[in-house]
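Hi V.,

Quick status before I head out on leave. The structure for the redesign project is tokenized and pasted below; the design run finished overnight.
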């Protein structure tokens, strides 16, 4: 994300952004093994830090005088405060000033266009209230990559028919009364799609990692995690009780150095060998839009005898000629990956997740994972949605709709990425990725960009601290196969207009 983020040399070539429309070459760092990510202009970096400092300074001044005029009632003696001081301060003095940019309620399917419910605020002390007005906006923020979440999607009829046979929910965990024939069919079809021996499905995407990882490794084990891994991976790793080490994002040289040093040193204090070493990476990183150098990571894990788990939440069903994700793009056999993990909440338009691998691994997960023995299973209609979407992707519905959707997603993503790069925006990620982050940097640009886009009927997602590093605020555009080219052109024209208004076309300044 920043100018110091590393990648493999093979990926650095792919990630190089196109030249801006001025015809001059965009200046980027070209250190070997480092991704071609635009440098942050020094003036932008300085003013960003200064702005946060100014906001915090006046926030503390207001808190100081407020405590003198209206002293707050502190926690009872002997009790710790419910929230940390800085968390409370950040929420009140920074987040709530631009709270309208997040948590916007919608009242429609997450298709190419959505109905956003407008809100109003009486004063800074009162939360936003939803009005009766709605705005029909182009959806650039949902993970509806293949358009299966559209209101006129091709799976609706089969999903509705499943309600005539099965209930809306199972109201039980899988080992009890939470398994129907649809659940078994989903597991068999996913295993076939991924070319693995077996598969286990979870009722929640986040819970797949947070309850699955602790069952895979525990005390005496070592987890080596990419520095940009999702919060669900972080949660699962911390819950496991294993030792955790982090390697630089997409840097295979640093990964190998961490593995080699860990093997030499052994466990802390005792220096006994690790019971197992598990590498955790993602297929596509959702905040960066970058693909993992999986082929090189597989080579390293085999060299040192480690286990590898790949989170394909944003890559399965979204990239690859047949939608089989990062393994297909990198030419890696799924048999070389010990644990294939993914979710059904993105490309498949449903809920839940899965872990796939060998029969012995999946059999163990069914008995040891809290996500299996204690959590409610996926609802039968959601299972039917997954089955229908998978059959379309695999071409088993008798049409080429799946191929056309995958091709449309790839073409839309690459077209959008190329156009915004030519406009002069700082863009992260790789071609082929449906996640296209545009950098905002400055805290004042976060609400400005979000509000101006909403005025132009564009629904976008902006990301600031602490979800992103302090200096690297951004807007994350998610492209769908349901987007038409004329709709993308209209959105690009409006984004360019907002970019000029908010002065966030940073690459253009570097080229002058």
């Amino acid at each position: 994300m920043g100018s110091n983020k590393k990648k493999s040399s093979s990926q650095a070539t792919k990630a190089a952004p196109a030249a801006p429309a001025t015809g001059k070459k965009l200046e980027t760092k070209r250190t070997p093994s480092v991704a071609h990510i635009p440098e942050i202009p020094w003036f932008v970096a300085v003013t960003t830090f200064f702005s946060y400092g100014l906001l915090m300074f006046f926030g503390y001044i207001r808190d100081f005088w407020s405590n003198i005029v209206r002293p707050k009632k502190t926690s009872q003696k002997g009790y710790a405060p419910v929230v940390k001081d800085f968390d409370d301060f950040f929420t009140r003095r920074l987040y709530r000033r631009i709270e309208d940019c997040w948590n916007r309620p919608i009242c429609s399917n997450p298709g190419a266009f959505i109905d956003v419910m407008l809100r109003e605020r009486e004063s800074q002390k009162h939360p936003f209230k939803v009005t009766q007005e709605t705005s029909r906006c182009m959806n650039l923020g949902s993970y509806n990559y293949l358009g299966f979440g559209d209101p006129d999607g091709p799976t609706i009829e089969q999903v509705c028919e499943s309600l005539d046979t099965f209930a809306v929910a199972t109201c039980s965990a899988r080992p009890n009364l939470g398994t129907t024939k649809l659940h078994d069919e989903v597991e068999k079809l996913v295993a076939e799609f991924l070319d693995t021996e077996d598969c286990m499905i979870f009722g929640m995407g986040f819970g797949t990692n947070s309850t699955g990882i602790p069952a895979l490794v525990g005390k005496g084990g070592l987890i080596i995690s990419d520095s940009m891994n999702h919060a669900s991976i972080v949660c699962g790793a911390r819950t496991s009780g294993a030792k955790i080490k982090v390697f630089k994002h997409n840097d295979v040289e640093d990964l190998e150095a961490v593995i080699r040093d860990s093997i030499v040193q052994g466990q802390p204090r005792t220096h006994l060998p690790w019971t197992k070493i598990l590498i955790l990476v993602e297929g596509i990183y959702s905040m960066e839009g970058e693909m993992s150098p999986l082929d090189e990571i597989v080579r390293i894990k085999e060299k040192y005898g480690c286990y590898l788990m790949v989170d394909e939440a944003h890559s399965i069903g979204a990239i690859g000629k047949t939608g089989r994700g990062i393994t297909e793009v990198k030419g890696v056999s799924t048999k070389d990956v010990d644990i294939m993990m993914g979710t059904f909440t993105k490309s498949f338009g449903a809920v839940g997740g899965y872990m796939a691998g060998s029969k012995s691994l999946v059999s163990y997960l069914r008995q040891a994972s809290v996500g299996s023995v204690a959590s409610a299973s996926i609802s039968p209609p959601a299972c039917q949605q997954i089955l229908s979407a998978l059959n379309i992707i695999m071409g088993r519905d008798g049409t080429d709709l799946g191929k056309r959707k995958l091709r449309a997603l790839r073409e839309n993503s690459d077209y959008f990425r190329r156009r915004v790069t030519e406009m002069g925006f700082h863009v992260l990620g790789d071609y082929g990725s449906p996640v296209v982050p545009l950098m905002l940097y400055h805290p004042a640009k976060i609400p400005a960009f979000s509000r101006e886009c909403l005025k132009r009927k564009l629904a976008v997602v902006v990301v600031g601290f602490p979800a992103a590093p302090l200096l690297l605020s951004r807007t994350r555009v998610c492209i769908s196969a349901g987007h038409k080219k004329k709709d993308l052109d209209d959105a690009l024209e409006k984004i360019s207009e907002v970019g000029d208004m908010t002065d966030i076309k940073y690459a253009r300044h570097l080229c002058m």
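Above is the designed sequence. Residues 42-146+403-510 form a domain with the Aspartate Aminotransferase, domain 1 fold (CATH 3.90.1150.10).

G. will cover questions while I'm gone.

Best,
W.
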